[in-house]
Amino acid sequence: MSNETVVTAAMLAIGDELLSGRTKDKNIGHLADMLTISGIDLKEVRIVADEEDAIVEALNALRGKYDYVFTSGGIGPTHDDITADAVSKAFGVPCEHDTAAMALLAEMYRRREMEFTEARQRMARMPRGAAHIANPVSTAPGFVIGNVYVMAGVPQVFQAMVDNVLPTLRTGTPVLSLAIACPYGEGEIGTPLTAIQKAHPETSIGSYPRYVGQKFSTEIVVRGRSQDVIEAAGADVRAMIEDIRRRKDIAENYQAEA
Prior knowledge:
This protein is of the alpha/beta class. 43% of the residues lie in helices and 24% in strands. It has nine helices and eleven strands. It has helices at 16-20, 27-38, 52-63, 83-91, 99-111, 118-121, 155-165, 186-199, 227-257; strands spanning 8-14, 41-48, 68-72, 95-97, 125-127, 131-133, 142-145, 148-151, 176-182, 204-212, 215-224. Helix 8 (186-199) packs antiparallel against helix 9 (227-257). The N and C termini lie far apart (56 Å).
């Protein structure tokens, strides 16, 4: 019986600027790295525009399917920052100015001798009953409601919020990996590698092609939650590479003798 624990997550990146290409997303890769280290499987990522219905639809689909959902973007002070409204609608609760968030922001702007305008007050809005995600960079908090963690889109702030969130999460058995250099291209290894994957269903085997000079090669990565299953699959991968090499040597010797 396996004692492995699998915890799953999804990410919802929000913003017209992501879809137009004006902003190049940096948050997806960072979250993927941090979740992998923590033993949480990032299974799906969606990118949606600043449209309330689209956010609600995507959020409801993801939060019912995965253990955790992380969002980025849309909690700033401008008119198109509508993530708090959309999350509130998804959960069926009012979106309102949070008293504690209002106090945090009011004090921050007082220290900076800046007016706490109506636009800036928008950053204190969140679904009723949500809890804060601390923001050590620029004060305005993110929030968590249910299994949904709502965070800023600015990479520096997003990363700081992720650091605060991760210690509070349930984690699973970490995924281990084994990288094997293969001197042959995917066209040569595709069929036998498929057979190896089928023979080792507890692993995930990826192939990543490279082209240097005039030669194709591949990095094969075996992933799994047990060192034993990884090593077993890895042994078959190495045997496959050796078999291809041997067959090539025989073919070249035959041609040389012909």
